[in-house]
Specification:
Order of helices and strands: HEHHEHEHEHEHHEHHEHEHHEEEEEEEE
Largest sheet: 8 strands, parallel
GO molecular function: alpha-galactosidase activity
Number of helices: 13
Strand order of the largest sheet: 7-6-5-4-3-2-1-8
GO cellular component, one term: cytoplasm
Number of strands: 16
Keywords: Disulfide bond, Glycoprotein, Glycosidase, Hydrolase, Signal
GO biological process, one term: oligosaccharide metabolic process
EC number: 3.2.1.-
CATH superfamily of the largest domain: Aldolase class I
Bound molecules: 2-acetamido-2-deoxy-beta-D-glucopyranose
CATH topology of the largest domain: TIM Barrel
Shape: globular
Length: 396
């Protein structure tokens, strides 16, 4: 017995000394990605940065503003340094980073491990150390490193090499790796242990687009692969399901609630992609929902899992929270046009302790009632991509 405990303790220590330990992203990163099609010049990015603060997003936790592909000049400076497009960024990147910092936000930037970015701008290959130092000098807090235009086989050494060079700059830089996404698409099984040793977060799969089909496909991919993803997920190292598309054009209010609830139960990064200048009130309310954000940011950092598939394609997800609470999301994906009544036993929800559980609705924290482990829980969930979200708490 004693030796089993001893071995368990060693394994525990091993896991925690191996994974990347740069003090960044102890909860899933939250922020805003500025794509260059919508925000092509620095003044528009500054405006979004101001809105992150004045609109209450920063105080809700959305602290990063990240500029996406297409910020670069097509050529490096004569000494090899990366330089921005001087029409889009006439003040330069350090000035933009300073401005972002002056608002209390953190500054993120996009690059690519290959010879060129996906849009054809200079990639970092051949310049890793110089570029790591440039980012640190510029005041970059977060690097999204894409994987276009490079041999996928090279990523297993290249991404860790860049991670080590970022570390050597002594600046704390959140490191977002696209490495596994390219491997998954090439049918190479990613070594998620090695990825968690080098990266704070990593895109696993497809780029999201502004549609329920895309959101639903990502949710299903995470569920179908949950047993190999979840063990590598936790404080400092996160699987990434890609951006929230809430507030754009493709999702209904119900589907937007679903994306927020599922991204929260998965504990994946919450990166906004909406124009904060034109966002609707309902979308803003969902994005800023304190209870859902608290579930996403729960300090345990567990990746929620799909635990049940019921009739009518209804799926139940659950995630353990701090203090013995459990969050659940019930997703009703099919377009039946009518609310669906669901009965599920507490035992099937994994709630098997003898004491009663208190149930609360997740979006508004409204008390639902007390249930015993041998009872069933009845509720209604709307169709076409809506969710019913609730959490349980043991009685005190
Ligand atoms: C790109 O950089 C070159 C000099 O290295 C400069 O002449 C040119 O104007 C720049 N173009 C843009 C769009 O920044
Ligand atoms: C560099 O790596 C070491 C070892 O993992 C870690 O303790 C340190 O915080 C890292 N520093 C930075 C700036 O990332
Ligand atoms: C995965 O990476 C870890 C850490 O670098 C290494 O110890 C392990 O051997 C690798 N596994 C495989 C199957 O390559
Ligand atoms: C829950 O629904 C089932 C039918 O599915 C019903 O038999 C049961 O009485 C209901 N329980 C409560 C507490 O409403």
């Amino acid at each position: 017995m004693r030796s089993i405990i001893y071995i368990a303790a060693i394994l525990f220590l091993y896991k925690h000394t191996k994974a990347l330990d740069n003090g960044v992203a102890l909860t899933p990163p939250m922020g805003f990605m500025a794509n260059m099609a919508t925000f092509p010049i620095e003044t528009l990015i500054r405006q979004q940065a101001q809105l992150l603060v004045s609109g209450g997003y920063l105080s809700a936790g959305y602290e990063y503003i990240i500029i996406d592909d297409c910020w670069l000049n097509m050529t490096r400076a004569p000494d090899g340094t990366l330089q921005p497009d001087n029409k889009r960024f006439p003040s330069g990147i350090p000035a933009l980073a300073d401005y972002v910092h002056s608002l209390g936000l953190k500054f993120g930037i996009y690059e690519d491990y290959g010879t060129e970015t996906c849009a054809g701008y200079p990639g970092i290959l051949g310049h890793l150390e110089q570029d790591a130092n440039t980012f640190a000098q510029w005041g970059v807090d977060y690097l999204k490193l894409d994987g276009c235009n490079v041999d996928v086989a090279q990523m297993d050494t290249g991404y860790p090499e860049m991670g080590a060079l970022l570390n050597k700059t002594n600046r704390q830089i959140g490191y977002s790796c696209s490495w596994p996404a390219y491997q998954e698409f090439s049918k190479i099984t990613p070594n998620y242990t090695a990825i968690a040793d080098s990266c704070n977060l990593w895109r696993n799969w497809a780029d999201i687009d502004d549609s329920w089909e895309s959101v639903y496909a990502i949710i299903q991919w995470f569920a179908d692969n949950q047993d190999r993803l979840a063990p590598h997920h936790g404080p400092g190292h996160w699987n990434d399901a890609d951006m929230l598309v809430i507030g754009n054009f493709g999702l209904s209010p119900a589907q937007s609630r679903a994306q927020m609830a599922l991204w929260s139960i998965l504990s994946v990064p919450l990166i906004l992609s909406v124009d904060l200048h034109t966002i609707s009130d309902w979308a803003k309310d969902i994005i800023l929902n304190k209870n859902l954000i608290a579930i996403n940011q729960d300090p345990l950092g567990a990746m929620g899992k799909r635990i049940l598939k019921l009739s009518n394609s209804i799926q139940v997800w659950s995630k353990p929270l701090l203090n013995d609470r459990t969050a659940f999301v019930v997703l009703s994906p099919e377009p039946y046009g009518t609310p669906i009544h669901v009965s599920v036993s507490l035992e099937n929800l994994g709630l098997t302790r003898y004491q009663d559980y208190d149930f609360f609705e997740s979006f508004d924290s409204k008390y639902i009632g007390k249930y015993h482990y041998n009872q069933v829980f009845n509720f209604t969930v709307n169709p076409s991509g809506d969710v019913f979200a609730f959490y349980t708490s043991p009685p005190h």
